[in-house]
Amino acid sequence: MHGRALLGLAGERAAEAALLRRGMRVVARNARTRFGEIDLVCRDGTEFVFVEVKTRRAGSFVAAAEAVTEVELLEAGP
Predict the structure, then answer these.
(1) Residue 64: its pLDDT value, please?
(2) Cα-based angle 25, 10, 77 (whole degrees, multiple of 5)
(3) Which end of the chain has the lower number of beta carbons within 10 A, N or C?
(4) Beta-sheet pairing, 47-51 with 36-44
(5) How many CB atoms lie within 10 A of CB 65?
(6) Predicted TM-score (pTM) of this structure
């Protein structure tokens, strides 16, 4: 694993740690369906939380929310 993959994995681990600190429980990591892949599936009480992690290097000019493609939004569902 190199470069971007390592950065992405580090971002997913950091996001998972933050969610655990908030009391969420991780149900699945890198869950695959026929529609695509989602980085983290968590439970927050009775609700499911689906998390797509976007990791950026320091000084990046693109906000994480801007990096989510239309295809990723469609794959996530309504």
Answers:
(1) 65
(2) 55
(3) C
(4) antiparallel
(5) 7
(6) 0.74
